[in-house]
Amino acid sequence: MKKKYYTITGISISILLVLILVAASNRSQRGNEGKENRTVLTEDKQYVCSMHPQVIRDEPGDCPICGMFLIELIAQDENSFDSSLIDIVRSVNETVLAGVRTITAEQSAMPLVIEASGIINYDPRKIQTVSARFGGRVERSFVKYQFQHIKKGQKICEVYNPYIYNEQWNYVRLIQTYPDRDDLTKEALDWLNHLGLSQGQIDSLKRAKVPDYYLPVYSFAEGFAVSRDFDPETYFFSDSKGENNPQTFLAGTGNVGLTDGITIETGDPLFKLIDITSLRVDLKVKTEYASLLRRGQEVFISDAARPDKQFNASIDQIEPLNGGLFQTVRVYISDREKLLMPGRQIEATIRTGARDGLWVPATAVVNLGQRCSVFVLDNNKFIATEVRAGVRSKGKIEILSGIDPNSQIAEKALLLIDSDGFISLK
Known about the structure:
single chain; alpha+beta; conserved putative lor/sdh protein from methanococcus maripaludis s2 fold; Elongation Factor Tu (Ef-tu), domain 3; four-stranded antiparallel beta sheet
């Protein structure tokens, strides 16, 4: 029995020793792994200065620049973020969070009214040139300054011509010698007509039978006298400081050119007469409306000086496009009351009919120069979306593409843009 007991005890002791060795070995391995982990963590630690982030050390210490204690640099996972803040951290030039009123585009036929501004100009069709019917020396001129009002039949100057004076004497002698022989005086009478004498001057010569050294010249029309080189096309658009200046019209100064003592020849232009009861309006219309313009379209003209008065006219001429931002539309109007002053800037509206399309308020569109955008509401945030805009009418803009009638857009887009921001279109 004792021998058997010793055998069992020996085996138990052997098993116990094996278990102790295994446990010790596992403890040693765990200790080594922990030591290695601690070593790795210790090696990965770095220290940085809070004031000078370029100073990084592998062990604690002081900053060599400012002397502050270095703090442990903690690495962060750049991919970790709070998904609930995704709309807030998104770039503000792409998406905006705001509580502004939204609207939808309206599909309708909108009456098109083009607004334009322009200058009142003289009607070149009503400008007449007064020419010399006969030559000679101007003894007296009665046209003294620019824009002097001249009536029809008014004497404008007196001309001395000795040759015509002698021909008048020949005619007077014939009618005195042969008072009843019109056939003999007809040739002399025709010659006086050829020299430029009017029928009234010849009748006066018959009655007085005394020729005059100074032949009067009368105006054949009524108007305002201007120089013979007056050009209505450039008068109000000239940069010169001379006669072609709107201030000249207001001051009534400047010389017409018909002065005493000058010599004129038959047919020489003396000056021009303009009629201000007929005027031309040169309107500047944006080229984007060029396709809508037609001759005969109704135009309403208003003058700021007379807000209660409106002038109706129609488009007479549309100048070809020249590649600029505006093209000229010309309108002729009649102003018998002489209420409009040439050179004044006026406002006009042109009615071009109705146009069916998708319309939004002008406040909902942001003009970016060559492009336009609106802010579309998508999942509680506004996204800047590019649109192609058409014409403008009565505070609304036509949208050709970019959104559909069901799109919710911000009614006042400028509220979603700060003064320093810009828009990145979708």
